[in-house]
Amino acid sequence: MRYSRQREALLDLLRSTKSHPDAEWLYTGLRKEYPNISLGTVYRNLRQLTEAGEIIELCYGNISHFDGDISPHYHMKCNNCNRIYDIPISSVSINLSGTDNFEVDTINLVINGTCRNCQ
Amino acid sequence: MRYSRQREALLDLLRSTKSHPDAEWLYTGLRKEYPNISLGTVYRNLRQLTEAGEIIELCYGNISHFDGDISPHYHMKCNNCNRIYDIPISSVSINLSGTDNFEVDTINLVINGTCRNCQ
DNA sequence: GAGATAACGATAACGATTATCGTTATTGGC
DNA sequence: GCCAATAACGATAATCGTTATCGTTATCTC
Q: B79-94 pLDDT, tens per residue?
């Protein structure tokens, strides 16, 4: 993967937020610095970075969101405002007993509910 | 919601399998009994049944899968064959401590890894 | 059985994502 | 530093899952 300014800016922007944005949000943000950047470039780089393991793709509600934080953690999604919050891995303990003969790779946990702001 | 033969057949088909199928699979299956059924009908009824809480919509990899089993349980997804397996709720114990002020509605847990067949 | 209308089938429209293609930018060897 | 090779770009067309439209059919209520 050869260096590109656009990909670097995308990675910087994604790492600078905790909002788990989608491609459109990133595109809008990048256009401030790169007014001619193409939406295709955003999608291409999001896919490359995901495949390289530098970012994580989250799938909530049939559109992809992205997370620049690749350290293990879980998510909380508010059913009202659709915001996605992080849950530190230390706040959850998961105990598996019946997954016999299944080789566990990653654990994906999403708590759906209502966040403080929306109550 | 008025009765319809097509919706009833869809519900029967979905409840008869543990494969967590997508719309296309259900469409293909229904065409054996209803050769003229429309794909739009499948989608319309899947949405209605989901909204009515009679089935559950699962989102893995940007295409919707459906589950006729609405009793609480979790899922295991094989990264190799993409099959989705059920995990009984009794096999997992989840302990939340840091979700302060978040009103929990549902818990969505997916274990990604390699199933017995694919090892 | 008749009128009201939900649901149908066929198909067009939509929105997110991916592919194409000619041009531009990065890189490694001279 | 320059040049050739080519990865990545921007613009845009194509794809694919899903939703909306619309005239017709089936279900339900009286």
A: 989 899 999 999 999 9
Task: State if pTM tops 0.90.
Answer: yes
Distance from CA of A62 to the nearest CA of B (A): 5
Instruction: Confirm or reject CATH 3.40.309.10 for domain B5-67, answering yes or no.
Output: no
CB A83 within 8 Å of CB B74 = no
CA of A10, C1' of D2: distance in angstroms = 31
Phi-psi region of B106 (alpha: psi -120 to 50; beta: other; left: phi over 0): beta
**Contact by Cβ (8 Å): A58, A97:** no
Distance to chain A for B51, nearest Cα, Å? 14
CA of B69 to C1' of C3 (A): 39
B31-68: b (≥16 Cβ within 10 Å) or e? eeeeeebeeebbeebbeebeeeeebbebebeeebbbbb
Give the pLDDT means over successive 10-residue stretches in chain A (119 positions): 97 98 98 98 98 95 94 94 92 84 93 93
Chain A positions in Cβ-Cβ contact with residue B79 (cut-off 8 Å): 105
Q: Which amino acid is present at A68?
A: G
